Amino acid sequence: MKSKGPEDRSAVPEVYAIQRGASGWTLNRRNLLRAAATAAAAVAPKAAEAQGCNSHAYAHTRDIWWLALSMDGRLLASASQDKTIKLWTLPEGALIRTLKGHTDIVQTVAISADGRLLASGSWDNTAKLWSLPDGAPITTLAGHARTVHSVAFSPDSRLLASAGWDSVIKLWSVPDGALLKTLQGHADAVHGVAISPDGRLLASSSYDRTVRLWSLPDGAPLKTLQGHSGSVSAVTISPDGRLMASVSLDQTIKLWSLPGGALLRTLNAGVNMVVFSPDGEMLVAGSWDKTIKLFSLPEGVLLKTLEGHTGWVNGVVITPDQKTMISGSADQTIRLWSLPEGQVQPVCMMDIAASTPEAAGAVYTKDDVTYTVACRSPIPQGAVCTCNCVPGTWGAGGGGGGGVCTCIPVTYYYPN
Predict the structure, then answer these.
(1) Is residue 69 classed exposed, middle or buried when 0-12, 13-18 and 19+ CB atoms within 10 A define those classes?
(2) How many angstroms separate the CA atoms of 326 and 313, rounded?
(3) Which of 258, 335, 270, 262 is nearest to 302 (CA)?
(4) Which string of DSSP letters, residue by residue, matches 219-280?
(5) pLDDT in tens, 285-340
(6) pLDDT at 255 over 50
(7) How far is it, in rounded angstroms, from Cα 264 to Cα 354?
(8) Which domains occur in the chain, in start order?
(9) pTM, 2 dp
(10) How far apart are the C-alpha atoms of 186 and 189, rounded to whole Å?
């Protein structure tokens, strides 16, 4: 046995794989993850054989508040009540980095269109900029007097808008973080901001029951949209820039035309947040009733309700190919779903440090079928085992029918 030396158990989680080769079993870092994920996607319909994560496989130690996906669909960021941001690779679902720096709940995250920057907003009254993919902190944006509840990048990745519970929106230049302008007009906390695909329009939603439209980059007020009878908690703009959706505590979703702001349709649905599909033909909503709802556009017909989470669904994103949807919840889990059927994928997005050994979520693939098992479970000969664990957390295995699915940072050689 060759040890890599003492391990820091507080280290960022790493990913390892066990592979049986001509010379025996070898534990390697991340080289087999994509193959395993491809196999997982291929066998998603085999629900009896591929169960995915169980309810104890947690991504964070507290509620997940928001998700952000890179434009290429390969990097996911999750924001949490545990004051951290986690970065995950897709489609593998591997945890690659945990970002610490905020001193209170991280409410929101956004990834720039060029994939080089991450922005976060927190209950510590600040927004932060981080470089990607390394996650190094760049600067702290201080200026809000209360929680930063939403952040949005412009399409050219040169401007960031932040929404605050202090009733203002701030515009910042990036990556230097210089404050360009403060937009005032809302009479209560601003909960959401969104920027149109052409970068010329900013929409904001507020607890004052309105949605406001502003021109960019000057920040001039254009129009105030009224119609909700409750606080407006979220706003989003379609990929083609022609539709906007707003979500309110009055248990409705409203669809508006852009740039004019005419009200097109009201959907009676009590939800927490909404996002457009990349083709703009579907609206997906995370709900307080612990479900995800899929609506057709432009009709607004409810197509499907997906169940599985045991807490509020606070964040939903969809991959560019529209084959996968990712959801984050107050139940501390991140789930992957196949679209359009809405079936849970057998990919376990999990921080082993936040989970129990029984729910370790190690995954092995054999004969094109992917199985989720606990760490240190026996696996058959010829299987590929991928793990998402903190190095040094779990004890070694060995022998058995072909090896043990373990995640410790050492290499084992099992004689043929």
Answers:
(1) buried
(2) 11
(3) 270
(4) --EEEEE---SS-EEEEEE-TTSSEEEEEETTTEEEEEETTT--EEEEEE---SEEEE-TTS
(5) 999 999 999 999 999 999 999 998 999 999 999 999 999 999 999 999 999 999 98
(6) yes
(7) 44
(8) 2-53+352-411 (no CATH), 64-344 (2.130.10.10)
(9) 0.76
(10) 7
